[in-house]
Structure formats: structure tokens, C-alpha cells
Amino acid sequence: MNIDIKLEQENAKKHIEAQGLRVLVCAGTGCVANGSLKVIEKFKELGADVSTLSDHDKVTIVPTGCHGFCEQGVLVIIPDKDITYVRVKESDVEEIFESHIKNNTPVERLLYTDPHTNQHVHKNEDINFYAKQTRTALANCGHINAESLEEAISVRGYEALSKVLSENNPDAVIKEIETSGLRGRGGGGFPTGRKWRFTAANKGEKSYVVCNGDEGDPGAFMDRSVMEGDPHKLLEGMAIAAFAIGADEGYIYVRAEYPLAIKRLRKAIADAEAAGYLGKKIMGTDFNFELHIKEGAGAFVCGEETALIASIEGERGMPRSKPPFPANKGLFGRPTLINNVETLANVPVILLNGSQWFSSFGTETSKGTKTFALTGEVNNTGLIEVPMGTTLRKIVFDIGGGIRGGKKFKAVQIGGPSGGCLTEEHLDMPMDYDNLIKAGAMVGSGGLVVMNEDTCIVEIARFFMNFTQHESCGKCVPCREGTKQMLKILEKIVAGKGEMEDLDILEELAIAVKDGSLCGLGKTAPNPVLSTLKYFRDEYIAHIKDKKCPAGVCTAMKKIVIKEDLCKGCTKCARICPVAAISGTVKNPHVIDQSKCIKCEACVSACPFKAIVKE
Amino acid sequence: MTTQSASKIDFSKIDEIIQSYGAKKSNLIAILQKVQETFRYLPEDAMIYIGTKIDGLSPATVYGVATFYAQFSLEPKGKYEIKVCDGTACHVRGSMPVLNAIKARLNIKSGQLTTDDGLFSLETVSCLGACGLAPVVVINEKVYPQMTSDAVKLILDTIFQEEA
């Protein structure tokens, strides 16, 4: 069927206006865990009776995708009243309804409080967390009903596809993506336009477009948010890519840990097919594009493109050697374009606003905006989108609101298990693909885990090595055996049994693993160790030489002692100790037998005189 | 070997599953996921059966795929599947004390998947994408945000009471 997208937009907008007062309630994974479904039900129940509303004739409750400010969930936004409520519970709904919706008096206690000024903030745009961001890929997330095709259309969904199809010039589309300077957002940073051109050049009887939604980096959830919050943008991006390279079939590979994203994508595909935006003869043209979903089964390595292809084909998800590149011989042996979710979500925006507009954001070599998942010991955790080249200081201290509990900033782990750590000296470095590589880290998928003085850096290196060792598929010996040996050494160090020569062996192994591995997993697995060794070598040395963990985390080096002068001999600690390591007589100071102590700290919290301390 | 014997497996159920996805090699992972959902694990006989039913597969390749992906379990899981997220954000915010509290409450040893009574199974997973709510614990699809040792014990107590 022929579709006049402008007309569809007008109709969609009219329908949305007819909804009256729109109350947006976040229904992303984070807010659902915080009880947003109950909040939505309560709102709907109260919204049924609107006879006393003065300025609107009805109220519509809109379940949206993720706003990114998960920690403050459940988030409720009422755009017509310029207000954002945070940490809303089912029991608060009635008050919002009576006080604000009916009588126009905002509920002050549910507003966001700025951690610096201690002031209540009314508008979404005035909350520092949002105010300092530039959202393009995430622009609609949290502002539209994620399960409604009509709402997607009202915010220019499928307009770029309509434009591309009517102009009917695939080469011009590729050119536009090339000039925009968009680079792969999944980690590698390969120029997207170039990838499209390579794949288009191999066009034969069959090509595929594959979306990599196997967001496996622990601490990253931007792709989940796009798939849950604005699924049509992803579908549109894929359809445009398919048109540009001459594909008629595509797959979205989503990790099984994201059930909500899978559900929303399935609905979005069905709705778009029924309305003529996907499937056969799209929008009345001769362009066909059939889209399938493949669920992953829990293997981190499947985020690597050739492993992902193997997994779609029903095999063990092991990487294949390149060349041949997927652009030549990919899925089922056909030319295949693989792009990450965030990359594809940028495509419609670039084609609507032009490559010039897109490349006005960012740095010389890294254009546009990038999403980061900001987590760890920072005041505002959540999903953010900022221009490439934004400094870490702005992200951690302005958007993130600084370190929790007034503690000291220590480091940021960027790019998950393939990335590295950044320290105080990097706070003012513009973050883009190339600067991060120079600093021994990488953008990766964009996980940013903030660590404070209480985080043990050696333990974190062990944590990541444990992860990559576990996820190594076993194909390349240096990765399979090398990560195991590196992990053993790190375990030895955190157990207080390290020797100085271990550090040299670690570095030697790191190079061997990097050089001897086929895919990105092995090539980057040693990064966390190398970068922590570079910036926090003295912490490793403290563990080895002084047998001390400066952050007081590593249990093997922790010693729990009773201060003789403070102990009143109440026997509480001796009674609570699970391994009977504490001895002493009533009203006399007790002692801990260090050989028996398991450092569970039960006695520390049991002591009424604060006489038991960690050393 | 698992306790379930071959005679207890209803192969017609597996046939239905294979048919609903199509007997193609590329559908193997989806088929195994459905089989696991039905039986709460992948029985050995089910894997052998699938391996002989689909062209291009053998029991060995099915076993290879089943053991490659973390999602698949070759032994039965509990009625309550507990997943403790140990992604970076959860780890930094203290997922290990939460895991230890669960282990202590359920009396489950390291390396043991399911409790002896079959009520609970416990595993760690890497990142559920709910990092803003770290640390999180998932029990049968329900996500519990910002867990502490005490909070998780309360949740388990409630389940024990319901099951008593």
C-alpha cells in the first residue's frame, strides 16, 4: 500500500492530542523492578474518573521505555505540567492525582532533589542528569509509548525510510552515512559507511542485515534501552541499511537475558509489518525486507560478529577467522552487514537531519553522540548520551553528581572487560575512540563503572579476568590457557601469596594472549590487567610486598582485631562467632584466634562498644 | 547421571517443539530453549532424540551446543531459580555478600546448583542490564533491586513460609 508519511504523522499527532493529559510512566526493566506496573495500574484506576478535571477532558497513562535514570525509578513525567516525579510508589499515586492532576499543586516530596543545592527540581530538563546530555539515539526513549507504532510515527518514525525509498538511490544513502562520520558503537569503532559500501559491493542474489543486540559487557545497558524504549527506530535503521546494501532479510540477535526487549521487538515487528513499514512491498514500493528475532543463549563471545553468525546458524558461538569478512561471506555464506543496535538507531536520525548536522557533534575523528551506562559509586547512576569528546569530569561530576557519600574518586573502568581504567589524570581528556585507545582503554560498548577509594583495583582486575576466562570459547589456545594462567596469578596476589616476578609474568602473558587470539575477546582480555598495572602498580606491590590491601577489600589480607582498651568482656562476640575463633572470660578483654577467623565480620557488627575493628 | 529415566520423557512433546520451530539446524538453539523451558533442564535423552531427528545434526553436535551456552543446564533446576547478578556494577556495589547470604540461608555449597529438596537453584549471571539498581537478584523472572544480605534473607523467608 502507498503510504503518505506526512499524513500518517498528522493523524498520529491528532490521536495523541485527543488523549488529553498524558502521564508518562517508565516501564523499562529498571522501573518495572521498582514496581512501575503497579503504579500504572493505580493511575489507570484513578484516571477513569476525570469529571472534575479543569484543563483536560481526559487522562491517558502512557507506559514508556527507559528514561535512563533507573536509580530514581519509578519515574513519572507529566509533560503538560512540566514535571518529573521520582521514586514514585503505588501508594503515592493517589496524592499525585488529587493534588497535582486535579488541583494543580505539585507534590513537592516526590520531586528530584539536587544533591549539591538540596533544592527540589520540577522540570525534567532542569535535572542536571538530563540537562547536560545530548540525546539523539535515545531521544524518544521514555517519551513515547514504546509499544505503539502510532506514537513512533508521531515523532517522525519511518519518515527517513519513506524519504530514502522515494528517492530510490541506495548509493546516496551510503554516501550520507559515510560523510556523517558514524563509527560502530558496539566497540570496534569501524566506520559504518565503509562497512555498508563493502557489503553493497558484494550484492548478489541474497544479502542479509544483522543487528547485534548481544549486549554482553557487564555494566552496559544502552542497547537494551533502545530496544525496549524505541524499537521502531531500530527497525527503521535496519530497513534503511537493507535498502542501501540490497538485502531483503534480516536478523536481530538479542541476548536471552533481555526478555522485555524481545517482547517489545516482536510486537514492533508485527505492527510494522501489518502497517506496511516492513515485510513485502514496503510503503508501496518494490522493496521487501523480512525481519526475524534470534534469542541468544548466554555466551559473551557471541557479541563478536563471526561468533554471532555461527550462533544464528545454530552452532556453538565460536569466532571464525577473517578474511573472509562477513561483508563477503557471512550468514549462511552470504554477504552480511552486521551493525550494533546503537549504530543502527543513529541511522534514521542522520538521514532526517543530514550528515552535516550529525558531524557537528563530536571530535575530529569521532562524530556524533555516544551513550554511556554510568554506574558504580556515583550519585546519579543511569544511561546517558553525550557528544563524543565529552570529558570524564563532566560525566562523573556534572551528570553523575559526583561520588556517593562524599568519598574520593579513584578510577573509572570503561568499556567493560575489554576496556581499561582511567584515573584522575584523565578527567579532562576528551573521550573519543582514539584518545581512549591511547590511554590504554577503549569506548567498548560504553560501560562506565565509577570506583571510589574503597574499591580494590587488583580485585577488579581479577574480577574482569575471571569473567573473560569464563567466557573464552576455547578455540585459540593463548586465550583459553593464557587467561587461565593470568587469573591464577591474580587470585594468588589477592590471596596475599603473590611474588614480585608475578607482575612480569602477567605482562608477558598479556602480550601473548593479545597477539595469539583470533577475536576481540582474546585481543582485549588483558586490557584491564595492563591498564591497572600501568596506573595502580603500587597497589599490586602493596598486595605482594606488604601483604596489605590498601582499600581493605581483599579478605585474605584483612585482619579483624579486638581493641583491648575498649572491650568490656560482654562475650557477645564470642557467642556470635560462627567458627568459635573468639575466646575470653566474662568482663575481661577477648581475643580473636587469627588462624580460625573467617573474616565474616559478624563480631564487628555485634559489638556494642565498637571495640572490634578491621585492620 | 540425572535421576530422570528415559521412560519419563514424553518424546511427543519434543516432536511438537521441533515442529513448531521447523526441523532446521539453524533453529537448534530455539528448540533447546523451549525443551529446557518444558523440562526445566535438557535431559540427555532429549538431546539424543533431537540430534537424530534433524538433518545435519548428531547427538554430539547437540551436546556441543548445549554445553557451550551458559543458559542450558544438564541437570534439573529448582522450582525457584535464583540468579545473582555479578556484573561489574553489581560486583562493585556488593553482590558477593548477598550471594553468601543466600548460600548460607539455603545451605547450598559452592559448585552445587540445586538444593537437595529441589526447591531452589542458585547461580551467578553476568549483567542483567539493570545496573542502575545494583546489586540485583532475580528469582524466576522477578527482579529484586538494591539487595542487601538482610533483604534477600527476608525474601527467602517469605518463600519458605509459602512452601511450608
Name the beta content range of chain B.
5-15%
Look at the helices and sheets of chain A and give the structural class.
alpha/beta
Distance between the termini of chain A: 74 Å
Structural class given helices, strands, pairing of chain B? Answer: alpha+beta
Rg of Cα set of chain A: 27 Å
Number of strands of chain B: 4
The mean pLDDT of chain A is 92
The second-level CATH architecture of the largest domain in chain B is 3-Layer(aba) Sandwich
Question: Which key terms come to mind for this protein?
Answer:
heterodimer, A: 615 residues, Glutaredoxin, Rossmann fold, Ubiquitin-like (UB roll), five-stranded mixed β-sheet, four-stranded mixed β-sheet, 39% helix, 14% strand, B: 164 residues, alpha+beta, 2 domains
Explain the overall architecture.
The complex is a heterodimer of chains A (615) and B (164). A five-stranded mixed beta sheet of chain A has the order 12-11-15-13-14, with helices on both faces. In chain A, strands 2-1-3-4 form a four-stranded mixed beta sheet, with helices on one face. Chain A has a four-stranded parallel beta sheet with strand order 9-8-7-10, with helices on both faces. Chain A has 25 helices and 19 strands. Chain A is α/β, with parallel strands linked by helices and 615 residues long. Chain A starts with a helix and ends with a strand. In chain A, strand 11 (369-376) and strand 12 (382-387) form a beta hairpin. Helix content of chain B is 46%, strand content 11%. Chain B has helices at 11-21, 28-39, 44-53, 59-68, 88-92, 95-106, 149-163; strands at residues 80-85, 120-125, 137-139, 142-144. In chain B, strand 3 and strand 4 (142-144) form a beta hairpin. The longest helix of chain B has 15 residues, at 149-163. At the A-B interface, helix 2, strand 11, strand 15 and helix 18 of A face helix 2, helix 4 and helix 5 of B.
